[in-house]
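[Automated response] Your request has been received and processed.

Submitted sequence:
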Amino acid sequence: MTEQKQEEIFNCWLHKHKALLFKVVRTYAFSPKDHDDLFQEIAIQVWRSIPNFREESAVTTWLYRVSLNTAIKWTRKETKHQNGHSSFEDLDHLLYEKETSNDPRLDWLYKQISKLDKVDRSITLLMLDGFSYKEISNILGLTVSNIGVKIHRIKKHLTSLSEEFEHHEI
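Generated structure:
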């Protein structure tokens, strides 16, 4: 593959699937600085991985696999690097008003998803995007039955939390 072809593919995928990448970034990074860092890491990894794409799955499935694996690795590295300490730069977001959507239910859902463990976060994102259990299994490298069990538990957990949210917020 020539570098020009790789660049065409990269630009096309970035243009078409930017929302998918931002969804992963928003789920794993919480400050504007971290959003930028994680997006850059994912973009670099997508660029590097393009020659390895064998077209055995849909582009979105493959992009999810690359971006989720990169986000999980980035989260692990950042947690280890910070070792419980935050720099003042990392706290900048506390000084600014947080961007919120017009729908408080959507903000609530993203907040609850961000509290799940890394794998459950990934499963939830894929489930919300309509991927089948088999596709989620292929992306995350877990068995289909394990995906089914985890989805059942995640739904049960989020349902119980939403009942509290509705009771207190609406």
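Summary generated for your ticket: The radius of gyration is 17 Å. Residues 126 and 136 are 7 Å apart (CA to CA).
If you did not submit this request, please reply to this message.
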